[in-house]
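Memo to structure team: turn this sequence into structure tokens by end of day. - J.P.
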Amino acid sequence: MLSECVDSAEIRELAARKARQQTRLDASNLARHFARLAVIAKHGEDPDVSADDSEELDGASIGLLIDVQFEDSAEGYPCMHIAIEGDLNLECQRCLRPVRYPVNLEARLTILNSDAEASRIVEPFDSIVMTADGLNLPVIMEDEILSTLPLAPMHGSGTKCAQVGSALYKSEIEAGKPNRPFAGLAPLLRAAGKDRDD
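Reply from structure team:
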């Protein structure tokens, strides 16, 4: 289990004994531990998802394995090696249904007491500054996960999701409905011009 909050003395002790903390977050735990992470895996059946898509909603296999190894860096500062792997269900930006996204990341963060200490280490960009309250490990893990997520997750090009999107686009073209995103802009500009003249 990850420590909720670890102070400077505890961090040094964990690093000195090369302690390791591991936890597995399944779909039900994500909402409790990672409240800011808006990619909560869904349990159960979605009536809008076909049998071909059902593997994406297998809640038992959706979750993350988090492994944190503490140690001392070459510069003498405590550091932690983070490994996170597993799967999350994100919302497809094309069909708005769940899409499985694999998470597989590793990071090594040097733990500093102040920003001034960053100038003394070789890789200052791979560091984290301890706050007055200490380090909240679940929040750090959450930030690492968020940094790897795509801006617009979508199902692959060979899936029904892509075929449905393509079919809708073709039907609009065949029906003679051109895509005019700025069609309503002209009347607004004319109205704005009249207001200025008055």
